[in-house]
Each structure stands twice: as structure tokens, then as C-alpha cells.
Design brief:
Blueprint: H1 3-22, H2 33-50, H3 53-56, H4 59-64, H5 74-91, H6 106-116, H7 121-169, H8 178-230, H9 234-242, H10 247-259
Helix pairs in contact: 2-7, 2-8, 5-8, 5-9, 6-7, 6-8, 7-8, 8-9
């Protein structure tokens, strides 16, 4: 689980609850069923207009990815590729056939299998980069879905506020109803702003972050597998792949390797 995401969600909601409680307000004052239906229902409705039904149904599955990301660490990938390079250098690239059963990453497995089969480097690179582009496109959709929700939810919040104001102004003959009516009218704006800024936009940014990390890992795999196929020295391959890591992580990688 991504602890940062969980802590962020809890902290954002906690900060708002703290502000409400310290101000001495009642939590019941911040709940209005018609406003909830207008904002949440309106946002869902426009998503169905903007995207196919099956895509909108992936909203919660996409949201789940920021809590349970499947991006693997970079250093184990580098270690594995260097190990493959050493085997290929010592016993030949066909010896890597025995390692395919232990590879869990389908992308690395696909590339290694092509290298073992003797696929030309240009063809191999083109196929792997096409796979990365397809993955990036899928990831971009998730970010787009969240950003679209963040754009429409506040709009429906404003629409709800305008509707509430119109109703309130129509009842100006009752001064006692003006204050509560204004409060209810403003709740829709609050709900819209909450959906956008406390959830959808942060989730979109976290999805983009994990997408960049996964693309980086794919790039490392491409560079490493092409170098293995080319018969490069394992030490050269290691240094080439370590350029993707910050200085501190490179030093930690070297220490762990020396300790092993």
C-alpha cells in the first residue's frame, strides 16, 4: 500500500474536520442530500456523456491504483538484467532460456524471449517501445478521467449554488429563511471543490507519477536487454543502467552489491 496516499487522504479530511469542529459548527450543517445528489450525480452524468459507460465504470479501479500501486522498485530490475548479462557473456544468450520461468515482469520476459530467439535489435526495440507507448496511453486515460471529474464537479457545485440562490431570492418575504437558504446554496460549491481538490486532482497527479516511474523501468529494461543482445560487457551494462538512478541510490546499490 502507498502510505503517502493514505496519510494524505486522512490528513486532508482531518484538516477540514478540525476546522469545522474548532469553529464550533455542527457536522450536520455540512450535509444536504439534494446538494449531494446534484453535485455527485451531475458529475457522474457528465462523465457518462464524455466517456463510454465501460470506461466510467473503471473510476474506482483507477482510484485504487494510487493506494495499491504495482510499480516495482528500480534496483531489482537492474540487478536482474546485470545477472542476465553475466550469464549471456559466460554461457551464451541461449543459456538465458532457463531463466525465463523465474521472470515475473511480462515486459522483461517478452524482451528476453525475443533476444533469445535472435530477433533483430531494431525490430525488438520497435516492439518494446510500442508496448511502452500503449501502456502510456492507457495510463493517460486514467489521469484524464480524474481531471475531467475535477473539472465538472465544481461546475455542478456552482450550478447548485445558483439554483439555491434563485430559490432563496424567491422567498425573500421570509427573512428567517435567508440565512439557512444561503448556507445550503453554498454547500454545493463546497462539495464540488472538495471532489476536485481533495481527491480527483491529487489522484491524477499520483497516477502521472506512477506512470513516469513505470515508463522509466521499461526504458531501463529496453536498454539492458538490447545491450545483452548486443553482447556488451556486464560492467558496462550496469554502469549504463545506473545512470537512471540518483547518486544516493547508486551508492546504496554499490554497497549492497559489495555486501553480497
Amino acid at each position: 500500500m502507498d502510505k503517502a496516499t493514505l496519510i494524505g487522504v486522512l490528513a486532508a479530511n482531518g484538516a477540514m474536520l478540525y476546522g469545522i469542529i474548532v469553529a464550533g459548527a455542527s457536522l450536520k450543517a455540512f450535509w444536504d442530500t439534494p446538494s449531494v445528489i446534484m453535485v455527485f450525480g451531475g458529475a457522474i452524468a457528465v462523465l457518462l456523456i464524455a466517456f463510454p459507460f465501460a470506461s466510467v465504470m473503471k473510476f474506482f479501479a483507477i482510484s485504487k491504483k494510487v493506494f495499491f500501486p504495482k510499480v516495482q522498485p528500480v534496483t531489482p530490475v537492474i540487478t536482474q538484467l546485470v545477472e542476465f548479462a553475466e550469464i549471456a557473456r559466460r554461457d551464451g544468450i541461449l543459456a538465458l532460456e532457463n531463466k525465463t520461468a523465474s521472470i515475473q515482469d511480462p515486459f522483461v520476459l517478452m524482451g528476453l524471449q525475443m533476444a533469445i530467439d535472435g530477433t533483430e535489435a531494431e525490430v525488438m526495440e520497435a516492439i518494446m517501445r510500442s508496448e511502452v507507448e500503449s501502456m502510456a496511453t492507457r495510463h493517460k486515460f486514467g489521469k484524464t478521467l480524474m481531471e475531467t471529474t475535477a473539472r465538472y464537479a465544481p461546475a455542478f457545485g456552482m450550478i447548485g449554488t445558483l439554483i439555491g440562490l434563485i430559490i432563496m431570492l424567491g422567498n425573500m418575504s421570509n427573512p428567517d429563511a435567508i440565512g439557512p437558504g444561503m448556507a445550503v446554496a453554498l454547500l454545493t460549491t463546497l462539495y464540488g471543490a472538495y471532489i476536485a481538490n481533495a481527491f480527483c486532482l491529487p489522484v491524477a497527479d499520483k497516477l502521472a507519477f506512477y506512470s513516469r516511474k513505470e515508463i522509466e523501468i521499461r526504458e531501463i529494461a529496453i536498454r539492458g536487454l538490447l545491450s545483452i543482445q548486443n553482447g556488451d560487457n556486464p560492467r558496462v551494462i550496469e554502469q549504463k543502467l545506473l545512470t537512471f538512478l540518483p547518486a544516493k541510490e547508486r551508492a546504496a546499490f554499490a554497497r549492497n552489491k559489495a555486501a553480497a
